[in-house]
Amino acid sequence: MIPAEIIAKFLADKGITRAFDVAGGMIAYIEDAISKTKGIKCSPNHHEQACGFAAEGYARMGGNFGVALATSGPGATNLITAIGSCYFDSVPALFITGQVNTNDLKKNKHIRQTGFQETDIVTIVKSLTKYAVMVLDPNNILYELEKSYFLMKHGRQGPVLLDFPIDVQRTPVQLEQLKHFFGSPEHKKLSQINPEADVSKKIKRLEKLLQTAKAPIVLVGGGIRTSNTTKELSSFTTKNNLPVVCSLMGLDSFPEADKNFVGFIGSYGNREANIVLANADLIITLGSRLDLRQTGNPKLFAKNATIVHVDVDRHSINVGIRSQLSFETDLNDFFTSAKNIRTVKKNAWFHFIEEVKKYFARPILHKKNVDSNTFISELSGVASPASTIVSDVGNHQMWLAQSWKTKIGQRILFSGGMGSMGFALPAAIGAYFAKPHNDLVVVCGDGGFQMNIQELETIRRNKIPVKIFVMNNKSLGMVRAFQGVYFKNNYQSTVIGYSVPDIKKIAYAYDLNYVAVERGDKKINFKEILKSKKPTLIEVKLSVSAPMEPKVIFGKPLDDQHPFLNEKKKRQLKVLKEELQHGK
Q1: Average pLDDT of the segment spanning 167-176
Q2: pLDDT-derived band at 370, boundaries 50, 70, 90
Q3: 582: Cβ–Cβ under 8 A, 6 or more apart, which residues?
Q4: Which end of the chain has the smaller Cβ count within 10 Å, N or C?
Q5: Contact in structure between 376 and 406 (CB atoms under 8 Å)
Q6: Closest to 264 (Cα-Cα) out of 388, 383, 401
Q7: How do residues 238-272 score in pLDDT, each as one tens digit?
Q8: Residue 90: closest CA among 154, 145, 147, 47
Q9: Cα 425 from Cα 56, distance rounded (Å)
Q10: Half-sphere exposure of 214 (CA within 13 A, CB side)
Q11: Nearest-angstrom CA–CA distance, 158 and 264
């Protein structure tokens, strides 16, 4: 066999049904081998960045890993944004790049390039991968595949990259002579897990903290999904009567209908959720790194709270926000250790939460023009539990996070750490191939929509029944709002010099159904749209100044969002805080 065939068989044996690619000369042997291997297919995109995002969507929905292929040079460098997205959001993905012949590789570091399109992609992506290597010896093919597979899934998950010169791809090898990673000294060394010290003592400390706390809360991050512990989370919070707030990446880990759900927190979070979090005296953080978008000003975050932090990545603990108790462990192990903890319901705390929800939640607005949050809320109301929702990046992402009512069984895919516009369309394609029977919804802005617009052809060609909601405010709204605050309304490149094509014509060009939503009082049959088997483009026409509210102004605490509370609301909140303090 040749290494290209071994790669194809390895992927198929691991349950990978699709490898996302753009054809290229230096990857042609691997593409050829995949096309001839049972159980796996190449799934062509129209840009390598889209291949990477599709691989990410496939991995996140399928519970396996994703695969993206690219040729040398520009093909490989076009993958970088998607590689970074997988790295920051802990997504296991194998990126395979072709490379020039080994004889054409530059031998002198002072020479920029020898072979045509020769590019040292391994050095470029080392800071964005768990492992990256150029495979120069064909006899190392299985070793490197097995090692990459192990590293993708071990500990905090993430992407790896294997770079194959084209002559290595086609050099015959003897299977019985190939080295294996599994069982090797390196495998045994990398498999060693330093057990969390004094777990039983820490669990007892946690139980004592829960019993003495007056206002405990659980903050859920993306680690719940990557560790596949949504059921364990539900059991833990139900048994211990613990309210739950979610970060952006943790939002689909906990259903909105659960009595313990409070809301989405952060700089663009639900006001009621931020107020509740700010008044907690114990915060149990599960699988979240507590970044600035979650905490606002770190010096003002939860000033009266004890922080308990659970994360598989020890480097994500005590960064910006100091914890008083930490567990450097996988969430599966944490929930197993904590399963016998029992606490009592804090009635005054739950009363405070309910009152805060009553007085400070964003109202549903029925205005003459489309209200973005109301639109998203109503759309979520008719979406089936078996839905995959994929968001792009921008104001619409925050409207979705604020107002989508997550149901059990639904998945919401966000680009978190990288926050890349252009994520949604290709990620939805990958998600579809992982879960083809789920209803598929994309929510994007007019800006992000255009960044990978070529993937509409991939959708058309594969007859993917996705419903694409383009929230069109004819501007780059999130940056536009930033310019309004800090640059005296100089909307350079967000409105000035920016434009949007006729989206209706775009829909027809790619043979998609088209629906326009122009007024808040216009009745749109969302159920009919969502159950259609044909891909549909829904243009939601918004004002250029469609607001993204509430939001935290730089330097302000999380619970003091703009637009600021009026005096009446401030007095209401003060009374509620006093009642909580006195246990009423």
Answers
A1: 94
A2: confident
A3: none
A4: C
A5: no
A6: 401
A7: 999 999 999 999 999 999 999 999 999 999 999 99
A8: 154
A9: 12
A10: 12
A11: 25
Q: How many CA atoms lie within 13 A of 345 on its CB side?
A: 11
Write the burial class of residue 495 (CB in 10 Å: 0-12 exposed, 13-18 middle, 19+ buried): buried
The token pair at 406 is 């997550």
Backbone angles phi, psi at 457, to 5 degrees: -70, -35
Q: Which two tokens stand for residue 63?
A: 């519970």
If you compute the radius of gyration of the chain from its CA atoms, what whole number of angstroms results?
25
The set of residues, in sequence order, having a beta carbon less than 8 Å from that of 421 and lying 6+ positions away, is: 392, 393, 394, 445, 447, 448, 451
Long-range contacts of 208-213 (CB under 8 A, 24+ apart): 209/282, 209/306, 209/308, 209/325, 210/240, 210/242, 210/282, 210/341, 210/343, 211/343, 211/344, 213/281, 213/282, 213/306, 213/346
Buried b / exposed e across 46-57, counting CB within 10 Å, b at 16+? bbbbbbbbbbbb
Mean of all residue pLDDT scores within the chain: 94
**Claim: this prediction has a pTM higher than 0.85:** yes
pLDDT computed for residue 115 by the predictor = 86
Q: Where are the beta strands (DSSP E) in 248-373?
A: 261-264, 282-286, 306-310, 325-327
Domains and CATH numbers, the chain: 3-191 (3.40.50.970), 199-360 (3.40.50.1220), 372-541 (3.40.50.970)
Q: By the 8 A CB rule, do 308 and 283 touch?
A: yes
Give the type of residue at 513: N
Take residue 497 and report the two structure tokens written for it.
Answer: 């010099």
The per-residue DSSP string of 359-389 comes to HHSPPP---SSPPHHHHHHHHHHHS-SSEEE
Is the bond preceding 535 in cis, omega lying within 30 degrees of 0?
Answer: no
